[in-house]
Amino acid sequence: MHAVWEQRHAALKAYFHELLEGAQTDPDHIPITFQRHKGEVFQLEVSVKLQVLKQLRVATYCIEMVPISLERIDVLESKMRDLQDEVDQLREDSEEVIENQSRGLQDLEVSVKLLQDHAGAGAGDDQSGGLVCWNNNADGIVRTNPPGLYHVTAVVNYKSKSTNAAIQFMKGAECIQTAYCGFTDGYCSSTTLACTTRVEKNQQFAVKCPVSLTGMSFLTIVRLGK
Question: Where are the coiled-coil regions (predicted)?
Fold first, then answer.
């Protein structure tokens, strides 16, 4: 049995090589026909030669080609154009968003640079990371060294049991702004005082608050120019 199988295996191998060599050297072309089948339906016929062992067979494949109406083609082209328009619009929108983001980042960098310049011009005793740190102000008074035009803002957090108490914004001995406290019945409240004023050298700013302070209050000074 083993010898018979070896002989058959050798014969199949030889036939397979003949089949490959015949496929490479066969000059005949595969016959193809395309003709009207019935009505508007066309038929594509493709004949393929198949050789198995020593026998040659021809297999014919028939494919019916159903025509597509011009109306359906027009609809498809219209949808493709609409899709292309949407893609172009999305591309333009994305480019506009990227441009606006870049412009916003540039504006932010310019704003930060201006703030740093103003902070450096009106700096106190120390600086940390480019921001002004007003130290040694245990008396609650901020002193400016260089004269110029300043924008000053004070945010005061407080609790008040009175309806006529007034928070005063002081420049030296002069009260430059007043804000009246509302009755908070023990609850926390906040008020903001802000103004743009001319400041002379070593002039002092302070906030007088006759009610109880809560949390942390803030005093911001920005030098606008000489």
Answer: 73-100
